[in-house]
Specification:
Blueprint (H helix, E strand, L loop, with lengths): L13 H17 L3 H5 L6 H7 L8 H11 L5 H23 L15 H14 L5 H7 L8 H8 L8 H9 L5 H17 L8
Helix pairs in contact: 1-5, 9-10
């Protein structure tokens, strides 16, 4: 049985504390030590322990490794809900860290042109915890269409995705829900029907 961690400091930001609690509970359910979990990852026991400490927001790769190490010990019916809760807690902690908690919600249904698409994509990225360009590219499932320099320009709104394939690679790299993926596909189809990428009518 893994030993309990030290109590969280009362001065820890709200959502970072919530993330720490989610991770601690995840490990508690497994009944494993950090050393035992680390054997199933490419990171150290110290890294996993630090992720639960509330000292800073862990990298998303650490969160994924933490969950992957715990997953074999979790009840099958709880695995997806636990991952969803962990990912959401990380996203909120990152938004808290970046000062974007009060950003308005993403309005995919209102996208009418490429300017809207660019704005909402940047906001979507922020709402998903602003994963780094390397993380987006890694988890996009389509790295060939995401050169890092192009991806950086798109996220800064200096450029727009050039194809639906490129847009959806970015979206997938931000850990969307299935419904969000479908809405982004519909948004691209809507924009591409009325506008070319240089802004002129088709």
């Amino acid at each position: 049985m893994g030993r309990p961690e030290k109590p969280l400091n009362g001065s820890i930001p709200e959502y970072l504390a919530e993330l720490s609690v989610v991770l601690r509970e995840q490990r508690r359910v497994t009944g494993r030590t950090f050393a035992e979990l680390a054997e199933k990852t490419t990171v150290s026991a110290a890294t996993l322990k630090r992720a639960t400490s509330g000292s800073s927001v862990p990298r998303i790769e650490t969160i994924r490794q933490f969950y992957a190490a715990c997953r074999p010990y979790l009840p099958r019916e709880d695995q997806v809900p636990i991952w969803n809760a962990t990912l959401k807690a990380w996203q909120l902690a990152r938004m808290e860290e970046r000062g974007t908690l009060h950003a308005r919600r993403v309005r995919l249904d209102y996208i009418a042109d490429r300017r809207d698409l660019s704005r909402e994509l940047q906001l979507f990225w922020e709402k998903k915890g602003a994963p780094s360009v390397r993380v987006i590219r890694k988890y996009s499932g389509d790295q060939i269409v995401l050169p890092l320099t192009s991806l950086e320009r798109i996220l800064r709104r200096e450029a727009v995705p050039q194809t639906k394939r490129q847009l959806m690679a970015i979206v997938r790299g931000c850990f969307p829900t299935k419904l969000e993926e479908k809405k982004w596909e519909a948004a691209w189809d809507k924009v591409s029907r009325g506008y070319s990428l240089n802004g002129s009518a088709n």
